[in-house]
Design brief:
Elements (H helix, E strand, L loop, with lengths): L14 E4 L8 H29 L6 H18 L2 H10 L2 E4 H34 L4 H4 L2 H27 L8 E2 L6 H5 L7 H34 L4 H29 L8 H26 L1 H11 L2 H5 L1
Parallel strand pairs: 1-3
Antiparallel strand pairs: 1-2
Helix pairs in contact: 1-2, 1-3, 1-10, 1-11, 2-4, 2-10, 4-6, 4-8, 4-9, 6-8, 8-9, 9-10, 10-11
């Protein structure tokens, strides 16, 4: 039975069809091999970081606790998108139910928003560590860390629920073909019929709230951090203080750069085929960069990973 449904004037479709990378023809198998390789490295790297942080007592600090939750969030984010994308590259067009599309959008947006808030929490953690080092242990206690992580996940879920409801309350009575490989906001919204102006405004406001709220906290934290670093008399002390923030700053630039480009643009600038390729950046590449960046720039993580590879940690586990 064909996945393409007969087009009618019904208010809602029973489902959608992902076109994915069908226009790439024979290159799809090459893309499958490439994306599968990247995904396996991403999945392995993030899981490995979670396990190493859990097993190495030297990494039982708030900074690494937040890093492990970021790795967990990134892993869940990719699990909801990439396996279906890989299946589509092999099988061609792939269907998804109306409810399934809404569920996929909710969870993918939820994990993406959670990542924003977790990055903000990690910036706050660096602020406390550098600006008030003598009170760091007492202020960043386990209770506060758990509250910050819980708030990040709850906030991400609430904002995602709002975005999903804004889109899926609309009637879908035109094409049912999604020019994408997952139920992302712009391609699904483009299928809605009628006036989508209010929905587009709602999505823009929610996106602005997530990105600006989390990025503002990061910016304020780093303004205090920069002031504290500049007050240090030792050049070596400045380098050491900045090095503790370098990994986080790099991830922030990559994450917010992609998110801002995709979700803070006017509708007139959308190009579904181009945006599909850009989406590969934040669904495949960015989750891979996070563990690589922290592994390359953080000495404690490097040491823990080296011990694990040598069998010191995993052997004891």
């Amino acid at each position: 039975m064909s996945l393409r449904m007969e087009q009618t004037n019904a208010t809602f479709w029973k489902g959608f069809v992902f076109l994915g990378f069908s226009s790439f023809g024979e290159l799809q198998l090459l893309l499958f091999a490439l994306f599968l390789s990247l995904y396996l490295v991403t999945l392995t790297s993030n899981v490995f970081i979670i396990v190493v942080i859990r097993l190495d007592s030297h990494l039982h600090a708030p900074m690494y606790l937040f890093l492990s939750f970021l790795a967990f969030s990134e892993t869940c984010y990719t699990l909801g998108i990439i396996p279906r994308m890989l299946s589509g590259l092999v099988r061609g067009e792939q269907g998804i139910s109306f409810v399934g599309c809404a569920v996929q959008m909710f969870f993918s947006a939820s994990w993406a928003c959670t990542n924003c808030f977790l990055l903000a929490v990690m910036g706050f953690d660096r602020y406390v560590a550098i600006c008030t080092p003598l009170h760091y242990a007492s202020r960043m206690n386990l209770t506060l860390c758990a509250q910050l992580v819980g708030t990040s996940f709850l906030s991400g879920s609430l904002f995602s629920l709002g975005m999903t409801l804004v889109i899926f309350h609309l009637p879908f009575c035109s094409s049912h073909e999604i020019q994408h490989f997952f139920c992302d906001t712009p391609p699904v919204l483009s299928l809605a019929c009628g006036d989508t102006g209010l929905s587009e405004l709602g999505i823009l406001i929610l996106s602005l709230l997530v990105l600006l709220a989390s990025f503002s906290l990061i910016a304020v934290s780093y303004s205090y951090i920069l002031a504290a670093i500049l007050r240090l008399s030792s050049t070596e002390g400045r380098k050491k203080a900045f090095s503790t923030c370098a990994s986080h700053l790099t991830v922030v630039v990559v994450h917010y750069g992609c998110a801002s480009f995709m979700y803070l643009r006017p509708k007139a600038s959308y190009s579904l085929q181009r945006d599909q390729l850009i989406a590969v950046t934040y669904t495949v590449v960015t989750p891979l960069l996070n563990p690589i960046i922290y592994s390359l720039r953080n000495r404690a993580v490097q040491t823990a990973l080296r011990n694990a590879f040598q069998g010191g940690l995993l052997g004891k586990g």
